[in-house]
């Protein structure tokens, strides 16, 4: 499926109305609502058609879009610093006709929020048609309630839930523990905040006293044992994070130029767990179940209320052993990763040094996360799998319980950024730098998009690319900051009103 004739990145994907709808948007600043068409005569088992197209009115790339629960409202965030809310009730309720219903900004937009002062990156919805959270590069997390409107720009915007001194790019929340949320960005730590601050004393529960003036309390930080090989101190960055909707306590953040890590909010602070790494299967040419078959089996098992069975077949050498045995090991690994005396990563600039640090249970590697801001996600009805995109156009899927690499699938012509599993079906939507949205599902015959048999060479190539691209990434960040500062100076000296967007703030630096 393709979002249309534009040639821009698809940054935003989300399922809505229990998977009946798929919401997409991106650099073309258009919002599209795709709907499943069970009456289609196509051979595709899961046919989707574009039912609605909305001109959002955003003047920069749209980074995230979500339909608010129990409503027909869609909230979007973009590089123009704005949060916009649209109502598509008439188009969603009408029968499928094969023709797209198009809306102008004036016809569909019902609210524009300008509370953030820098590029707004992610949205988190809750069990409400009026209530949602947003995070932005101004280091703030804001809570929006459409039932209580206010005039932005007059100094009357509600106080943010979080204000950190560094850019934020992701936020994660589990519906099982909605009073907690995790944020990540340009910091070596992901921070866990507790919203149960008002009227409560958290000393007994979290082992610390909340600050009197704060709306929320930072109760935990999540760190790594060491930096990735060649990772530059001071340029640590978390690109995406996800909390498990199945158990409410597992957190999976993706670190730029490094791996995806798995934490639990229930772990004791400072405990040095026996962290496991991605297990690389041998490249023996032996047949193996595709991820679509595994997800299909998981969904079938979930209908009977049975636990998903572990598959020990395919366990091979550890990634660390593989890298150590490679002929050009020095070229791949480079210098030893940096660590501090206590084995963790120190940051004297962190705003919450009193919050205890939790270390990972496991990490999942093999992909390359350097060029863009990549999300991370869980797959399966019990969140049995962890998945993330890669700079090589593939997305990787690991078994969460063991770290075993399940599959490597081609998801984009360039880079995969977003992977969203359907809430009830064994169906996965994937997007990235090119114009298309790919849907992955169980099918008869060989897995045509699987690169699992070439996993050894792919992981080796990605390890080399991560190291060589790291220095380039640092220089790009510096250039982007200089350019954005220059634009802000021009804006303030010329008219002080125009929202100029940095020319570098496109797909490559989203």
UniProtKB/TrEMBL annotation:
Q: What is an annotated GO biological process for this record, any one?
A: negative regulation of fatty acid biosynthetic process
Gene3D superfamilies membership: YVTN repeat-like/Quinoprotein amine dehydrogenase
Give the source's domain of life in one word.
Eukaryota
Q: Per UniProt, which keywords does this protein have?
A: Repeat, WD repeat
- Composition-biased stretches, type Basic and acidic residues, lie in 296-306
SUPFAM superfamilies referenced in this protein's UniProt entry, alphabetically? WD40 repeat-like
From start to end residue, where is composition biased (Acidic residues)? 307-344
Keyword Disulfide bond recorded? no
A single GO cellular-component term on record = cytoplasm
Looking up InterPro entries in the UniProt record yields:
DCAF8 (IPR045151), WD40/YVTN_repeat-like_dom_sf (IPR015943), WD40_repeat_dom_sf (IPR036322), WD40_rpt (IPR001680)
Q: Where is this region: Disordered?
A: 269-351
The WD repeats are found at: 10-44
- Which PANTHER family does the annotation name? WD AND TETRATRICOPEPTIDE REPEATS PROTEIN 1, WD REPEAT DOMAIN-CONTAINING FAMILY
Q: What is this protein called?
A: WD40 repeat-like protein
Species assigned in the record? Boletus reticuloceps
């Amino acid at each position: 499926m393709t979002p249309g004739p534009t040639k821009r990145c698809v940054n935003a994907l989300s399922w809505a109305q229990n998977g009946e709808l798929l919401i997409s948007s991106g650099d073309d600043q258009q919002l599209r609502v795709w709907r499943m068409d069970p009456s289609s005569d196509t051979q595709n088992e899961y046919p989707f058609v574009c039912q609605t197209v909305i001109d959002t009115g955003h003047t920069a790339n749209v980074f995230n879009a979500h339909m608010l629960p129990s409503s027909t409202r869609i909230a979007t965030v973009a590089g123009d610093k704005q949060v916009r809310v649209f109502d598509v009730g008439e188009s969603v309720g009408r029968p499928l006709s094969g023709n797209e219903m198009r809306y102008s900004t004036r016809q569909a937009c019902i609210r524009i929020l300008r509370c953030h002062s820098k590029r707004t990156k992610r949205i988190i919805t809750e069990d409400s048609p009026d209530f949602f959270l947003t995070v932005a590069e101004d280091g703030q997390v804001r809570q929006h309630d459409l039932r209580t409107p206010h005039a932005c720009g007059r100094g009357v915007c509600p106080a943010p839930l979080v204000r950190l001194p560094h850019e934020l790019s992701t936020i994660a929340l589990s519906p099982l523990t909605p009073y907690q949320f995790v944020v990540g960005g340009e910091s070596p730590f992901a921070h866990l905040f507790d919203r149960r601050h008002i009227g409560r004393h958290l000393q007994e529960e979290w082992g610390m006293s909340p600050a009197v003036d704060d709306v929320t309390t930072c109760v935990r930080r999540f760190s790594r044992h060491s930096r990735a090989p060649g990772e530059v101190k001071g340029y640590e960055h978390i690109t995406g994070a996800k909390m498990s909707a199945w158990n409410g306590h597992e957190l999976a953040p993706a670190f730029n130029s490094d791996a995806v890590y798995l934490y639990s909010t229930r772990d004791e602070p400072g405990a040095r767990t026996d962290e496991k790494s991605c297990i690389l299967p041998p490249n023996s040419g032996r047949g193996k179940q595709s991820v679509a078959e595994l997800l299909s089996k998981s969904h079938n098992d979930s209908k009977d209320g049975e636990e998903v069975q572990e598959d020990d077949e395919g366990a091979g050498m550890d990634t660390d052993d593989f890298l150590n045995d490679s002929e050009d090991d020095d070229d791949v690994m480079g210098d030893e990763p940096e660590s501090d005396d206590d084995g963790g990563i120190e940051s004297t600039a962190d705003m919450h040094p009193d919050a205890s640090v939790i270390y990972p249970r496991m990490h999942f590697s093999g992909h390359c996360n350097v060029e863009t801001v990549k999300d991370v996600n869980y797959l399966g009805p019990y969140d049995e799998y962890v998945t993330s995109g890669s700079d090589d156009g593939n997305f990787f899927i690991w078994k969460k319980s063991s770290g075993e690499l399940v599959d490597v699938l081609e998801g984009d012509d360039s880079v995969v950024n977003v992977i969203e599993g359907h809430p009830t079906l064994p169906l996965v939507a994937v997007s990235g730098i090119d114009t298309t949205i790919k849907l992955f599902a169980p099918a008869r015959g060989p897995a045509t998009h699987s690169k699992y048999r070439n996993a050894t060479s792919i992981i080796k190539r990605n390890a080399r690319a991560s190291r060589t691209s790291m220095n380039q990434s640092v220089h790009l960040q510096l250039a982007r900051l200089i350019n954005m500062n220059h634009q802000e100076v021009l804006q303030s000296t010329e008219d002080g009103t125009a929202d100029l967007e940095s020319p570098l703030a496109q797909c490559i630096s989203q």
